[in-house]
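Thread: Modeling a multi-component assembly for a lab meeting

Hi all, long-time lurker, first post. My supervisor asked me to bring a structural picture of a complex we are working on to next week's group meeting, and I have zero experience with this. I have the sequence lines for every component (228 residues in total). Could someone generate the structure of the whole assembly? Inputs are pasted exactly as I received them:
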Amino acid sequence: NAGVTQTPKFQVLKTGQSMTLQCAQDMNHEYMSWYRQDPGMGLRLIHYSVGAGITDQGEVPNGYNVSRSTTEDFPLRLLSAAPSQTSVYFCASSYGSLAYNEQFFGPGTRLTVL
Amino acid sequence: AQSVAQPEDQVNVAEGNPLTVKCTYSVSGNPYLFWYVQYPNRGLQFLLKYITGDNLVKGSYGFEAEFNKSQTSFHLKKPSALVSDSALYFCAVRDSNRDDKIIFGKGTRLHILP
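Re: Modeling a multi-component assembly
Sure thing. I ran the full set together rather than chain by chain. Output:
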């Protein structure tokens, strides 16, 4: 099993550009989440999904869109990048509710917005 | 408000000594608690969790955590530290307002000195 994979590993964008961060998991997990990690702030939930076709907002959803057309994939779209979105982004999956079950994290995408 | 606090930004411990990484929480209802570890340039890895049962929870890599309801704490411990334990450690708690997600602390960087 590859677990949770994320692409790209690094990305530099200019303000106003758009892009999609890819996330895939091969564990048949229903729950998937996107977090951003900023120094001294821990991880903050951006969006999450409890199954194909179902998504919901987390703590910091503004400026990001998600969709979940398959169980395996959960892409994160930046609509118009801003310097405040410079961060490390992690995708995670879980076989059940995040409240009770461990999450499996991808290796992360380091995004810089100039 | 639901919250989790890690009062120490950094903890230094000599190799072979016992280590403790502190975590306190504030939630309504029963607390479901987690510890994750992040090695440099990697995603988070699950260490252990407390849902119910014994107050002493054993996890991966020789770590354990003690749940203390009266002190609202869930400190991570290991009897004898290894240099390879040096990493960033996150405590997390179920958000009882949003049963399907958890709140992460800001993280504690653990340095094990050879």
